[in-house]
Amino acid sequence: MTRTTSIAAVLSARIAAACVDGPFTLADGQVLDSYFDEFRLAGDPQLLHDVAKAMHALVPAGAEVLAGVELGGIPLVVALSAVTGLPGAFLRRLPKRYGSQQQIEGTQVEGRRVVLIDDVVRTGGQLLSMAHVLRAAGGHVSDALCILERPLGGRVLLDEHSISLGSLLYENDLPASAGAAS
């Protein structure tokens, strides 16, 4: 699963518009000077559609379910599901505390080949955690996709756990002012 140079050339400047300068604190406490704001991408229907169309080429043959990680992966799964015709599942970081009390919502994953979807991959820890959740529910997870891959070890970590990462863009595809974080 690789992305084509033409995708990077066409979408990188548009996606870079979703990169924001300013301090941003990650869950681990690290503070970034700029970050990728998935809400700007998700809030632009044409860009979201175009990204989903481009990501369609990355979906591996035989995929049966697309599973979006909260929160950045959810709009991507909805858009990618509309483009591919594949059903979607939605992953919470923690099980819901009320109502259904589910951690996986949407389509059932048991016995099915599931592709994890997220907006940005940095260290890969979040995707790996969600792969464990899906595998515990009986899903077969061997692939993950993202819009933007940062070179912080995510690909290596996922590969160590038999998960292949497909990325639409890499940090160096973004204009220099947009490529410093997230």
UniProtKB/TrEMBL annotation:
GO terms for molecular function: glycosyltransferase activity. It comes from Streptomyces blastmyceticus. Keywords: Glycosyltransferase, Magnesium, Pyrimidine biosynthesis, Transferase. Residues 64-141 form the Phosphoribosyltransferase domain. Orotate binds at residue 150. Its EC number is 2.4.2.10. It holds the Pfam family Pribosyltran. Pathway: Pyrimidine metabolism; UMP biosynthesis via de novo pathway; UMP from orotate: step 1/2. The keyword Transmembrane helix does not apply. The gene is pyrE_2. Homodimer. This is Orotate phosphoribosyltransferase. Belongs to the purine/pyrimidine phosphoribosyltransferase family. PyrE subfamily. Its cofactor is Mg(2+). Catalyzes the transfer of a ribosyl phosphate group from 5-phosphoribose 1-diphosphate to orotate, leading to the formation of orotidine monophosphate (OMP). HAMAP family: PyrE. It comes from the Bacteria. Transmembrane segments: none annotated. It is an enzyme of class 2 (transferase). 5-phospho-alpha-D-ribose 1-diphosphate binds at residues 92, 96, 118-126. It catalyses: orotidine 5'-phosphate + diphosphate = orotate + 5-phospho-alpha-D-ribose 1-diphosphate.
